[in-house]
Amino acid sequence: MNWELISKATEYTAEEMGVALKRSAFSPNIKERMDHSCAILDSRGTMVAQAEHIPVHLGSFRIGALNILNWMCSNSMSLSPGDMLLTNDPYITGTHLNDVTVLAPVYNGSKTMCYVISKAHIVDVGGPVYGSINPSAKTLYEEGIIIDPVRILKGSRLDSEILSILTANFKDPQAAAGDLNAQIAANRTGVTRMNQLFQRYTPSEIYDAWERSVKRSRDLALHSMRKWRRGCFSALEHLELGSSLIPLKLKLEVSEEGIGADFTGTSSQLESPLNAVFGVTFSATMFSVRCAMASEIPVNEGLFSVVQVYADPASLLNPAKPAPVSGGNVETAQRVADLVFQALSKCVPGTIPSGSSGTMFNVMIGGLRENGSGWAYYETIGGGNGGRPGSDGVSAVHSNMTNTRNTPVEVAEREYPVLFTRCSVRRGSGGRGIHSGGDGIVRSFKVLTRARLSILADRFRTRPYALEGGKQGMPGKVKIVRRGAVKLYPSKFMEELEPGDEVTLITPGGSGYGKPPHKPRRN
Q1: Residue 22: predicted pLDDT
Q2: Which of 11, 23, 97, 442 is least enclosed, having the fewest CB within 10 Å?
């Protein structure tokens, strides 16, 4: 059928955009770790196709795209053929400042037919911390430069003045400029492919195909939930902040019409980067629900429409500007996913795994090279997956909301003044069970020049939840060795490093699933 061909062509366009972005990017964070996502929107901003890249981008794109088009309408802004809009304001885009979003229109004659959109994590977007995820930020302004929606391309020509203003605020301007140009190239790829689609089919055929695809996704989603228990299921989790544990609460209501996720009772917003804009909250909720669905479902508005999310205004999960939000995209997103999984374990028992490491374990480090140029290195460190019905958890992998690759040691050492001394599985850190949790990671490196290190992680004082009597995985640690002296650190801190200092990152293991078999003591 034509509608299926059109829908698949639209999906593959988004995938091809992602390939173009990865291949032309400068920073290891994109070309190695693939910290980016791409999508296609109709002329109203409805998500009609999305490449399955980073989970935290999957649902937040839906919120961000509509916010951008609403902002354009409110500010009397329109995009002409060849124009591209750029922004990173998390209260518009739905994630955090590092995720720069670029939007381009696709014209057929004089009419805007659809939009292509890309999002990529630029390693450093300014602010006092290398990597721009500031563990000590109390406002958004302490996390980096805020870019309101602006035309970065005008009539297919790059606005070099705007680009120079942006890169002048980034600590590694060459890498940032390269990554931004890679996004522009990806969007151009998307525009070309969509133009080819509109040359092959009429607009009415394409719009009909998208409408049918959206309806099909909704039907598949509801069908996959037909055997789920109906009712209200609750869960409670915590994030670490200094000596405090910050509560997150959820009531998940499952009905014939879909799912309602109510986070009433969660902490109010904080003077801390752990706040998560609403796009992140929706995305993390959507991710966990999607994982519990047994069937293959195209990612578009039809899938998103079965989940309704509520979080109190000015709360941790729906903060008011200018609350800082860089950590909400990474750490709080993981905890929201944990909350939803726990609630779902009561709704669809016997299908949900025990808790994974529960942290993206963000490492930001940077400084000045001998020639005076800046460098900034960002990495998220994997951990152990939770044990699951039928099999053990996987060791040393990214889990849940991250889904990125790691930066190979050889690449990091080539690009930055660091020397890795260890990269191994943290044996025995997974919790025991009928199916044991996966083990975490031990990753150590020495800095070869003065540098500033920032860590934003979690699960140092709490442990991943365990289901069906399994044992919890071990918590994380960070230690720094300086001139033979060892010092342990909390899950969130900044530290100035001297040449030769060795940093060791020890990530949490996943929890076991099911009560472990009794082993009699040896005499």
Answers
A1: 94
A2: 23
Of 58-62, 174-178, 501-505, least confident by mean pLDDT is 58-62
The whole-angstrom separation of Cα 412 and Cα 290 is 34
pLDDT above 50 (res 522): no
Sign of the Cα pseudo-torsion (172, 175, 178, 179, in order): negative
Residue where a domain terminates, one of 202, 218, 234: 218
| Number of domains observed in the structure of the chain | 2
Helix axes 160-168, 173-200, angle to 10 degrees: 140
CA separation, residue 496 to residues 304, 345, 381, 448 (Å):
43, 43, 20, 13
- DSSP characters over 194-253: HHHHHHHS-HHHHHHHHHHHHHHHHHHHHHHTTTSPPEEEEEEEEEEETTEEEEEEEEEE
Helix/strand/coil for 458: coil
User: Would you say 225 and 254 are in contact if contact means Cβ atoms under 8 Å apart?
Assistant: yes
How many Cβ atoms sit within 10 Å of the Cβ of residue 204?
A: 8
**Which of 167, 196, 218 delimits the end of a domain?**
218
0.85 exceeded by pTM = yes
Q: Is residue 440 situated within a structural domain?
A: yes
Answer whether residue 332 is part of any domain.
no
Cβ–Cβ under 8 Å, residues 376 and 452:
no
pLDDT tens by residue, 3-45:
999 999 999 999 999 999 999 999 998 999 888 999 999 999 9
Tokens 């544990």 belong to 245
Q: Residue 519: its pLDDT value, please?
A: 59
pLDDT at 521 over 80: no
Residue 391 has pLDDT above 80, yes or no: yes
Strand locations in 294-353 (E): 307-310
Identity of residue 273: P
Report which DSSP code applies to 367.
E
Distance CA(308)–CA(253), nearest Å, equals 10
Please enumerate in sequence order all residues whose Cβ is within 8 A of that of 76, keeping only pairs 6 or more positions apart, or say none: none
Q: What amino acid occupies position 137?
A: A
User: What is the average pLDDT across 379-398?
Assistant: 96
Tell me the C-alpha distance between 446 and 459, whole Å. Answer: 24
Residue 259 lies in a domain: no
Q: 62 and 210: one domain?
A: yes
DSSP string, 109-142: TTEEEEEEEEEEE-S--SSSSTTS--TT-SSGGG
As a whole number of angstroms, the distance between CA 205 and CA 220 comes to 22
Give domain status of residue 413, yes or no: yes
